[in-house]
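Take a sample.
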Amino acid sequence: MISTKFIRNINMGSLVNFDGSISNVTIDSRKVTAGSMFVALSGENVDGHEFVKSATTGGAVLSIVSKKWAKQTDVSNLPLWIVESPEKALQQLAATWRDQFDIPVLAITGTNGKTTIRTMCESILKRKYDLHSTTGNLNNHLGLPLTLLKLNESHTFSLLELGTNHFGEIAFLCELCKPNAGLITNIGYGHTEFFGDIKGVARAKEELFQSLKSNGISFINLNDPNIRQMSPKTMQVTYGMDLKNGDYSGTITEYDKNACARLEINNEISVKLKVPGKAMAQNALAAVAVGRTFSVPAHDIVETLESFHAINQRFMVQQTDYCRIIDDVYNANPNSTNTAIDTFTTMKVPGRRLFVFGDMFELGDLSEQCHRDIGRKIAQSPIDILYTYGPLSTFTVDEARKAGMKYAEHYDNKIDLISALKHIVQKSDTILVKGSRGNQLEEIIEGIQT
């Protein structure tokens, strides 16, 4: 419960018509419940101030509003926290709230695998701790404060996911959440439109390690050359596949027909995964390093990982009446797409492999070359048919054809693509669908099944 006294002690703006406590905080007036605080944010399309009165009617006991709005509005009967910037007030409220808790706080960032590793770690750490954790994709300058404000006195560990697409964002998020441990999953070609190149991505992600105090813990993925070059001034826990030197060395001893790996770690832990691909085994290894570092028993870790299933829209395999579909539409960049192709080709399939590929966004000057590289890789793989959607993926089809692929077609709209798929698909086929979030390729998966 956030009290009037707690808010006053932050020393921002002024409180009017409020003397009580708050049970939760929301930036969406539709999610207001009794005891809520509503934060009126001004977005590109919608100004949250338009919903202050309806939020109050709906049960909000306090709303954070801007001074500019308050001066232009009759606020005589509204419970308000009036500040220069509601966004900054939300962030400062969250940072001050977090300061009350002396518990381990592990922050995770990286180009690929953040949510999967966070979810694996979440399942493992729950075996020992009363866990506070990021939910959904609340990992940015608004989502993180909302997550932090859910911390309470029962929690004994906090696990946070941090996202970024601009320099300085990770550093700022760390100012809010003050992690004492950090893990960078990997460095890849994500958001290079803003970071310039792979070195820029590395600099942005390294802000996490740089934010840690000397008594903190940095989890170092030694398989990633850009992370290997980082030198955090903390205790280091190293992990990676097939290491000669490292704290946690993993080896894949076999794949089953679905490309799910058996992972051996330090000749002590053996895990048979239910999620396919080498990347998932690497994610599991990172989770093992975290679990063991924070004293979760090995048998609990094994039991947890062996029951772990794919997260929605992240290489989720499903059998339909028409064929087998691999739903990997949550997002895409060159590294995650290459990984998806590798996993797809490792799987044993009864029929043909079809790949529906959508544009990869936010690659800047690297866009054309990255899409062409994917086309060349597809042509050199056992994938039988390629269908693409989006203007950038025309480069993918062009390069695939140049590299000798016979069946590669581009479509300007999803209706035609779905129609073409339905015309050729056979029950023994497996279709991988992948592209950046903005493509909304789940519509193609839905279209195939109707």
Summary: Residues 135 and 147 are 8 Å apart (CA to CA). The longest helix spans residues 278-293. The radius of gyration is 24 Å.
